[in-house]
Specification:
five-stranded mixed sheet, Muramoyl-pentapeptide Carboxypeptidase, domain 2, 101 residues
């Protein structure tokens, strides 16, 4: 597991770290390393959970494209219902967003 140079992690919430560790375990199952490509830095949509430290972006181009959806689903299964795992065109977005019942 590693960080892309320039990724800002100061202020990243424990839930985001939990998701990163879980993602790394899944990536390793496919012979890859989880690389955080986005944390608190960068330009995100208004109201993005990135700005409050609850979201991370993960590299996908280091894994065979045919495994992307499987990896997404396995990460989601491991981290639970309070997280969203979204497969974007060029990365995977993971955010902590507790569901209110």
């Amino acid at each position: 597991m590693r960080l892309k140079p320039g990724v800002r992690i100061r202020g990243l919430r424990s839930e985001a770290w939990f998701a990163f560790y879980a993602a790394d375990e899944v990536y390793k199952e496919y012979g890859a390393e989880a690389v955080m490509t986005g944390g608190l830095e960068g330009k995100h949509s208004r109201g993005s959970i990135h700005y409050s430290g609850g979201a991370i972006d993960l590299r996908t181009n280091n894994v065979n494209k045919r495994h992307w959806e499987i990896i997404r689903d396995k990460i989601k299964e491991r981290i639970g219902a309070d997280f969203d795992v979204i497969l974007e065109k060029d990365h995977m977005h993971v955010e902590y967003q507790p569901k209110v019942e």
